[in-house]
Amino acid sequence: MIRMIIFLLFFLAGINAQIALPTFQAVHNPQSTTAILSGTPENPLQSSGISPEHFPSNWPYMMGYIFTPNVNGTITHIGGYFDGTKTTRLWQYSNGNLLASVSVPDPTYSWTYADITDVSVTAGTKYVVATAINGSGAARIRFADGGSSLPNTYGNITINYTCYRSGNYDSDTYPSWSYEVERNWNFGLSDITFVPDE
Q1: Which of 7, 91, 113, 164 is the most exposed, fewest CB within 10 Å of its CB?
Q2: Grouped pLDDT means (10 residues each) for the chain, 198 residues
Q3: Per the omega criterion (within 30 degrees of 0), is the bond before 56 cis?
Q4: How many CB atoms lie within 10 A of CB 5?
Q5: Which residues touch 133 (CB under 8 Å, ≥6 apart)?
Q6: Is-contact 131 111, C-beta < 8 A?
Q7: What whole-number distance in Å separates Cα of residue 171 and Cα of residue 165?
């Protein structure tokens, strides 16, 4: 018997046999860090259809608008209509929490939006989007030319009021607005890309 085992060992060693051991494998399903959004993207100010005017304007302000989503959703981009690279920010209105800040590459007076980390927003909660214009490259629209003063609803977003802070303000800290209830004009033309939940 020992001869048989020795022969078998030499034989296996000679052919370089390998013994397969059982293995255990688990299936790994990586979790996405970005939700798959299925709603139709909306750009409320751009979709107003009101033509920008009065550019180039050199207002030394941070300018934007206060808005309320009418349904839950996600803001995926912020930007606007201006000239020159500008910083655009998104805050929650009630507590001043900064939700996003991004440098928007020079749109040369066209609607341009920059990617941000997706921000979930809640229906009925006010938010603010604003751009640091700081003395160059601004434009404006007149809501009365579009048929009515603010507030107006475009898609699933109500633009409540235009807001601005005078002085060359460019900070992530929530500004103390010089004016936040403008109903007839929008200055600076900041905007968002909103994707409603479905």
Answers
A1: 7
A2: 53 49 36 60 91 84 95 97 94 96 91 96 97 89 76 95 90 88 86 94
A3: yes
A4: 9
A5: 59, 60, 61, 62, 63, 82, 86, 187, 188
A6: no
A7: 11
CB-based contacts of 71: which residues, under 8 Å, 6+ apart?
A: 123, 156, 196, 197
Q: What tokens were used for 156? A: 């699933």
Residue identified by tokens 């209509």 is 81
Residue type present at position 109: Y
User: In angstroms, rounded to a whole number, what is the distance separating the alpha carbons of residues 168 and 58?
Assistant: 11
Reported residue count of the chain is 198
Query: What tokens does 149 get?
Result: 């003063």
**pTM of the shown model:** 0.79
Under 8 Å between Cβ of 93 and 180: no
Specify the CATH number of the domain 44-196. Answer: 2.60.120
What residues does each domain of the chain span? 44-196
Q: Exposed, middle or buried: residue 1 (CB in 10 Å: 0-12, 13-18, 19+)?
A: exposed
State whether the Cα torsion 86-127-114-147 is positive or negative: negative
> Hey, what are 180's tokens?
């936040």
